[in-house]
């Protein structure tokens, strides 16, 4: 295979290995192999290559999806950005201690805890100063959490003070959040009715304050911290008052729905957050070694209290008393012990919250507000510590239990490792940093290696986020993060929801070269899932320049980067999405340097991905951006891209077409310069060549290009369309209308209109529907234009001609476009008439760019489809029913049954009118590449995966079938082929019978457009579908592709089209993978012979017919690689080739000649031998079949309609043997792929060996559809490629008979 072909996949070929092993054995035993192939088979290297390497074709993503993007979810992508981000701008620290006086409902232990905000009131003689010191210290602790918050203290307040205090805070905070911290250790417990306590002015009484009033004073949003006994009472009553407010608001609304002035906004209080120290029936802990405000200490100084509590419960002695333990360092410096512990604590609490909380709740509490996030991290610690002391902290919104999370063990280890170093640090030794982050990264790496296919994110993800803050571990963390993001969109959204975006945005300012490749990869993944919400961020911080600088030649990657092309493709992808629908992005990105370098990358031969995204990036740079188009035209960028229309990769050809489409204007042709018009016409002329492309996505994009061109030059296109309509009227009325004066004749506009009409008869569903939308639009606009009256005259002329002929004027065999061609997928197709093709009239200079003599896809034929509905409506003249063939038992009309459609395709609703220009989905589809895993092997290569197991099972089954058949091949010429295996009632007249190699499938193609798939081993029909070839044509050949794995079915029909189907055996899942016009100018006659031969070893399809050429189509490239002159005026009727090397092929012709071609030489000299005459016996009639065996002795056998059978060796000029198999003519012939036997059919079915000896003779029993006393003759014959099984049927009979060799025991089918 060509090394540049990247769209194939290697698999083992047990079939090839077994066959060639057999050949080698036969060679060793002095037997022969024809055609001089012995030398090749004697080569161990050649045999090893054949046994181990095989290819699967048409299995890429573009075939699985037909280039259509995924349907967007109704709910849209997951929301990860905090659009309602808030700040806690003010904080009220309310301390009610009244030191020296204990509240009456609390009995303290002796000894008991005394510390408030780490201050011992007994060490300060003045209680007022002690209270002030506590308030000051508490404020300092809060300032560690948030320096930007404005703090105000209210120490031992009365009711008036607290009211004035709260109202003033809300006035200053406006709509932002307020923190309200309440320490009620010196007042009674909150009441069950919802009141907290403060003092009177003389501190002689406790005065209650209703929570309802407090809500009114503070408003919303707020976060409340309740540190007092029975704090759960406050939480429950607070929520009760909120519901009361909501009910009052509902009652205050007037009957007409208008809100009265007395109503408020009770729903706003639902956003309030509460943290309470204990439940309603609990008392705060009083352990003397713990502070009295243990809950507050956990919230505001978590490291100190966590270390103290760890030492208290540890059996180890750390050399100091608990109260003397001090962790050295600053909490903001991660290089010090205290800073590192705080860093680890943040990572651990984030991880606990991430794994236990719902995603929405996690975002609200841990990402929306820095103060709220800090308090809730520390609340997790409070939940752990206070539970040990018989207290259960309460929160609203409530959190699940977090005290037993396994990550707390990692925290205890980190604290222990820090404490054990305190003596060494006191002695002046250097601090040894914790291994926590390295160990967590290792755990993350292990998860990626063994658990990556799970959809549950790893618990270490928040830790990786924290590690990005460290320069030491940053590169490793980014590499692991990129591997995680590679798992798919769910992984990207998980990382974004955890808060990764600000970090990677900040890293774009880093000059480190080693970070560039991994950052580019990460940003490509992020942009692929949600680029719209990121565009403004990249613009604001000039982040886009990071990727443009990488693209420019003077900016290099790290020295050891080996994937430079892939990373440049990612940069092009990022810039393309940055500019997609974003004018500001186009403005800042567009530049001559960038355009020039993208043109250079678009010609990079070693990277199809870079070529594709260079084109797509250019398309987004100048789409609907006039300044960008001017710059592109100045740099001659469009002309530079034209060469890519012949790129070997279909995705690149499509991307180039997208870029050229984006360059076109959108109906502004009257406002642009002549230079612009010249370039646009030049591009249209270049895109015309894509009408012969084999890729459906390329042709579909060409139709999108033409739709935009039609809008841009609508007037000129209407004139060209009118000229074609005049030709149609002239053909119907048989009048000579002067059309040579039409100004569109010989112009690019006429050629474009001809191409659109050609596409309107395309076999690929989407191409056909898109083109018909364009035709409908043009006809509609023509009726609304000044040409409308003349169009009415042509209508009357065509009606008169139709009535005179008793048929619809020139109605094509396809479906009327305006309504019925958008039938639902899988539904029966409407019935269509058959009409003779007309010869197109167009400029010869432009026609050469399209194709000459395209009779089957005549532009006039395509116009008939829309004319029939647009002009005549429901008044269609009679005579449009599908034609019936008198010689056929088939009564099913053309178009009956399910017509397979392309994957992901959704047809436009019936009756709706398409809007031009058409919209392309290729750009969105291309972005999906960066959402798919690239670093992990494909599922089929992963041991134990379902796809791997299925492939392994198929490999074993295939080897078993081959090994069984090898032992039975000698019986083929010894036994009698009279053992009946069953009769299949196909209902319609079979025309082609083809067995699959390994699947128990028999494909039966009838004489119209029906394909039935049978399980011949069980005599059961699996499916039937419509091939959708036009009425009056038929299916002429059937082949299987990729038979070593999951086979596909290929059909060729007499109008020159080839269609390939996936899941052909399933009624519901059958899909059209690819379809194209393999031969042009064939016509719509059922008698037109179109023969094909598929070479699996090379991925090549040979197609011949009445066109005097044999076309060679390459499956990976989806292009015609050669048009080999047939050197005969007679049509090609049969093709066969060497299935191993694939260099030689033989064509049989209607005049009885055989020609040998060698693909290794120039196409003009490819015919190396011609066989016409033999000594005494000649093929005087058309060649029915010519077959070269895949295995066995590689015999080459031909059979003609006059009954002559010949065997050949390509090295000789005369047949090895010739004999007459049937004196009264022969109807069918087939050769077994491996056994030395062939079968012929006329009125009798005869089997022969290759020496011309008849080994058996049988008669096909007439089926129930055959008339009595009517002489029957064979219509079709087929051998199974491996089994000794044969299928046959008769003319005018819809049944298929299955036989096996009588010497062959049917043991296991």
From TrEMBL:
<feature type="region of interest" description="Disordered">
    <location>
        <begin position="801"/>
        <end position="840"/>
    </location>
</feature>
<dbReference type="GO" id="GO:0005886">
    <property type="term" value="C:plasma membrane"/>
</dbReference>
<dbReference type="GO" id="GO:0009267">
    <property type="term" value="P:cellular response to starvation"/>
</dbReference>
<dbReference type="InterPro" id="IPR016024">
    <property type="entry name" value="ARM-type_fold"/>
</dbReference>
<dbReference type="GO" id="GO:0031139">
    <property type="term" value="P:positive regulation of conjugation with cellular fusion"/>
</dbReference>
<feature type="repeat" description="WD">
    <location>
        <begin position="1196"/>
        <end position="1218"/>
    </location>
</feature>
<keyword id="KW-0853">WD repeat</keyword>
<feature type="domain" description="Raptor N-terminal CASPase-like">
    <location>
        <begin position="85"/>
        <end position="239"/>
    </location>
</feature>
<feature type="compositionally biased region" description="Polar residues">
    <location>
        <begin position="807"/>
        <end position="818"/>
    </location>
</feature>
<dbReference type="GO" id="GO:0010506">
    <property type="term" value="P:regulation of autophagy"/>
</dbReference>
<dbReference type="InterPro" id="IPR019775">
    <property type="entry name" value="WD40_repeat_CS"/>
</dbReference>
<feature type="region of interest" description="Disordered">
    <location>
        <begin position="1"/>
        <end position="27"/>
    </location>
</feature>
<keyword id="KW-0677">Repeat</keyword>
<dbReference type="GO" id="GO:0030874">
    <property type="term" value="C:nucleolar chromatin"/>
</dbReference>
<dbReference type="GO" id="GO:0030674">
    <property type="term" value="F:protein-macromolecule adaptor activity"/>
</dbReference>
<dbReference type="GO" id="GO:0031929">
    <property type="term" value="P:TOR signaling"/>
</dbReference>
<comment type="similarity">
    <text>Belongs to the WD repeat RAPTOR family.</text>
</comment>
<dbReference type="InterPro" id="IPR011989">
    <property type="entry name" value="ARM-like"/>
</dbReference>
<dbReference type="InterPro" id="IPR036322">
    <property type="entry name" value="WD40_repeat_dom_sf"/>
</dbReference>
<dbReference type="GO" id="GO:0031931">
    <property type="term" value="C:TORC1 complex"/>
</dbReference>
<feature type="compositionally biased region" description="Polar residues">
    <location>
        <begin position="1"/>
        <end position="13"/>
    </location>
</feature>
<dbReference type="InterPro" id="IPR015943">
    <property type="entry name" value="WD40/YVTN_repeat-like_dom_sf"/>
</dbReference>
<dbReference type="InterPro" id="IPR029347">
    <property type="entry name" value="Raptor_N"/>
</dbReference>
<dbReference type="InterPro" id="IPR004083">
    <property type="entry name" value="Raptor"/>
</dbReference>
<dbReference type="InterPro" id="IPR001680">
    <property type="entry name" value="WD40_rpt"/>
</dbReference>
<dbReference type="Pfam" id="PF14538">
    <property type="entry name" value="Raptor_N"/>
</dbReference>
<dbReference type="GO" id="GO:0071230">
    <property type="term" value="P:cellular response to amino acid stimulus"/>
</dbReference>
<protein>
    <recommendedName>
        <fullName>Raptor N-terminal CASPase-like domain-containing protein</fullName>
    </recommendedName>
</protein>
<dbReference type="GO" id="GO:0030307">
    <property type="term" value="P:positive regulation of cell growth"/>
</dbReference>
<dbReference type="GO" id="GO:0000329">
    <property type="term" value="C:fungal-type vacuole membrane"/>
</dbReference>
<dbReference type="GO" id="GO:0043130">
    <property type="term" value="F:ubiquitin binding"/>
</dbReference>
């Amino acid at each position: 295979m060509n090394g540049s072909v990247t769209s194939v996949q290697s698999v083992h070929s047990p079939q090839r290995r077994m066959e060639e092993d057999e050949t080698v054995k036969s060679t060793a035993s002095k037997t022969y192999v024809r055609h001089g192939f012995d030398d090749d088979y004697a080569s161990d290297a050649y045999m090893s290559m054949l046994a181990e390497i095989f290819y699967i074709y048409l299995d890429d993503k573009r075939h699985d999806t037909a280039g259509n993007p995924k349907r967007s979810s109704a709910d849209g992508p997951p929301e990860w950005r905090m659009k309602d981000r808030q700040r806690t701008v003010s904080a009220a620290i309310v301390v009610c201690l009244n030191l020296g006086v204990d509240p009456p409902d609390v009995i303290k232990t002796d000894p008991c805890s005394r510390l408030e905000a780490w201050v011992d009131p007994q060490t300060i003689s003045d209680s007022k100063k002690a209270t002030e010191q506590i308030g000051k210290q508490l404020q300092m602790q809060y300032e560690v959490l948030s320096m930007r918050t404005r703090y105000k203290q209210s120490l031992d307040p009365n009711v008036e003070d607290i009211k004035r205090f709260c109202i003033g805070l809300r006035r200053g905070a406006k709509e932002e959040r307020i923190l309200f911290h309440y320490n009620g250790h010196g007042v009674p417990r909150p009441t069950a009715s919802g009141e907290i306590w403060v003092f009177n002015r003389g501190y002689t009484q406790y005065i209650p304050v209703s929570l309802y009033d407090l809500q009114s004073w503070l408003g919303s949003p707020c976060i409340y911290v309740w540190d007092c006994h029975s704090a759960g009472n406050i939480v429950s009553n607070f929520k009760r008052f909120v519901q009361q407010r909501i009910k009052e608001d509902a009652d205050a609304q007037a009957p007409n729905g208008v809100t009265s002035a007395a109503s408020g906004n009770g729903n706003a209080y639902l956003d309030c957050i509460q943290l309470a120290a204990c439940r309603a029936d609990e008392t705060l802990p009083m352990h003397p070694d713990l502070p009295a405000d243990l809950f507050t200490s956990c919230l505001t100084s978590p490291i100190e209290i966590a270390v103290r509590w760890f030492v208290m419960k540890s059996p180890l002695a750390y050399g100091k008393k608990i109260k003397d333990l001090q962790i050295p360092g600053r909490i903001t410096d991660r290089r010090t012990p205290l800073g590192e512990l705080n860093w680890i604590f943040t990572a651990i609490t984030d991880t606990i919250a991430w794994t236990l909380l719902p995603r929405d709740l996690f975002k609200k509490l841990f990402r929306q507000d820095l103060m709220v996030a800090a308090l809730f991290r520390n609340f997790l610690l409070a939940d752990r510590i206070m539970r040990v002391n018989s207290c259960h902290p309460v929160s609203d919104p409530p959190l699940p239990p977090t005290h037993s999370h396994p990550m707390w063990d990692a925290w205890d280890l980190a604290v222990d490792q820090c404490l054990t170093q305190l003596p060494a640090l006191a002695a002046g030794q250097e601090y040894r940093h914790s291994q926590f982050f390295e160990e967590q990264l290792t755990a993350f790496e292990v998860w990626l290696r063994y658990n990556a296919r799970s959809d549950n994110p790893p618990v270490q993800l928040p830790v990786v986020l924290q590690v990005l803050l460290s320069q030491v571990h940053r590169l490793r963390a980014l590499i692991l993060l990129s591997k995680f993001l590679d798992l798919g969109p769910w992984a990207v959204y998980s990382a974004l929801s955890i808060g990764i975006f600000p970090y990677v945005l900040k890293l774009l300012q880093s000059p480190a070269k080693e970070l560039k490749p991994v950052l580019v990869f990460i940003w490509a993944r992020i942009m692929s899932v949600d680029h719209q919400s990121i565009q403004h961020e990249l613009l604001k911080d000039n982040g886009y320049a990071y990727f443009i600088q990488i693209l420019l030649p003077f900016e290099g990657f790290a020295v050891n980067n080996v994937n430079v092309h892939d990373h440049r493709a990612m940069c092009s992808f990022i810039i393309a999405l940055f500019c997609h629908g974003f004018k500001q992005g186009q403005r800042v990105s567009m530049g001559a340097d960038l355009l020039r370098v993208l043109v250079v990358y678009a010609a990079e031969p070693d990277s199809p991905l870079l070529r594709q995204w260079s084109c797509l990036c250019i398309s987004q740079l100048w789409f609907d951006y006039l300044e960008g188009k001017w710059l592109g035209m100045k740099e001659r960028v469009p002309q530079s891209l034209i060469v890519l229309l012949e790129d070997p990769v279909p995705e690149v050809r499509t991307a180039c077409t997208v870029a050229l489409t984006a360059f076109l204007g959108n109906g502004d042709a009257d406002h642009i310069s002549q230079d612009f018009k010249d370039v646009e016409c030049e591009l249209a002329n270049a895109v015309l060549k894509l009408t012969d492309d084999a890729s459906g996505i390329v042709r579909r994009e060409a139709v999108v290009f033409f739709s935009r061109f039609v809008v841009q030059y609508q007037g000129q296109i209407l004139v060209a369309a009118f000229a074609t309509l005049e030709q149609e009227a002239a053909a119907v009325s048989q009048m000579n209308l002067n059309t040579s004066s039409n100004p569109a004749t010989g112009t690019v506009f006429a050629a474009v209109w001809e191409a659109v009409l050609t596409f309107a008869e395309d076999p690929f569903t989407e191409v056909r529907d898109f083109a018909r939308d364009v035709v409908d639009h043009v006809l509609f606009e023509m009726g609304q234009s000044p040409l409308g009256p003349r169009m009415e005259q042509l209508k009357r002329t065509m009606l008169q001609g139709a009535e005179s002929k008793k048929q619809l004027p020139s109605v094509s065999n396809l479906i009327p476009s305006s309504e019925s061609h958008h039938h639902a997928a899988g539904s029966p197709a409407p019935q269509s008439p058959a009409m003779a093709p007309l010869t197109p009239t167009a400029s010869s200079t432009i026609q050469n760019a399209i194709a000459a003599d395209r009779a089957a896809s005549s532009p006039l034929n395509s116009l008939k489809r829309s004319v029939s509905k647009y002009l005549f409506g429901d008044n269609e003249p009679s005579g449009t029913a599908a034609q019936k063939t008198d010689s056929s038992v088939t009564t099913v009309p053309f178009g009956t049954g399910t017509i397979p459609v392309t994957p992901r395709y959704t047809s436009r609703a019936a009756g709706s009118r398409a809007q031009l220009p058409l919209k392309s989905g290729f750009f969105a589809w291309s972005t999906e590449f960066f959402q798919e895993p690239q670093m992990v092997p494909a599922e089929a290569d992963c041991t134990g995966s379902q796809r791997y197991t299925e492939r392994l099972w198929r490999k074993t089954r295939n080897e078993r079938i081959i090994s069984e058949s090898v032992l039975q091949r000698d019986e083929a010429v010894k036994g009698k082929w009279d053992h009946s295996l069953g009769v299949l009632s196909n209902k319609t007249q079979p025309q082609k019978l083809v067995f699959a190699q390994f699947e128990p499938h028999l494909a039966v193609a009838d004489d119209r457009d029906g394909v039935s798939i049978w399980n011949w081993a069980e005599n059961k029909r699996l499916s039937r579908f419509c091939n959708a070839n036009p009425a009056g044509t038929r299916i002429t050949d059937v082949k299987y592709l990729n038979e070593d794995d999951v086979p596909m079915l290929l059909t060729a029909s007499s109008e020159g089209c080839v269609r390939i189907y996936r899941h052909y055996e399933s009624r519901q899942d059958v899909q059209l993978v690819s379809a194209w016009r393999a031969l042009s100018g064939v016509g719509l006659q059922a008698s037109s012979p179109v023969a094909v031969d598929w070479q699996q070893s090379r991925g090549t399809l040979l197609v011949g017919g009445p066109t005097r050429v044999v076309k060679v189509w390459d499956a990976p490239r989806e292009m015609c690689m050669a048009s080999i002159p047939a050197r005969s005026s007679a049509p090609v009727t049969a093709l066969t080739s060497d299935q191993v090397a694939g260099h030689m092929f033989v064509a049989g012709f209607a005049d009885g000649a055989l020609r040998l071609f060698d693909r290794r030489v120039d196409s003009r000299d490819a015919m190396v031998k011609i066989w016409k005459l033999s000594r005494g016996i000649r093929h005087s009639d058309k060649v029915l079949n010519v077959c070269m065996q895949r295995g066995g002795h590689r015999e080459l056998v031909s059979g003609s309609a006059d009954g002559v059978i010949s065997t050949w060796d390509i090295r000789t000029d005369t047949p090895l043997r010739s004999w007459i198999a049937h004196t009264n003519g022969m109807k069918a012939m087939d050769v077994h792929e491996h056994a030395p036997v062939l079968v012929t059919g006329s009125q009798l079915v005869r089997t022969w060996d290759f020496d011309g000896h008849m080994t058996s003779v049988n008669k096909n029993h007439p089926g129930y559809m055959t008339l009595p006393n009517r002489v029957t003759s064979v219509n079709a014959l087929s051998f199974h490629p491996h089994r000794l099984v044969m299928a046959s049927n008769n003319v005018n009979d819809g049944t298929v008979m299955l036989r096996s060799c009588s010497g062959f025991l049917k043991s296991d089918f």
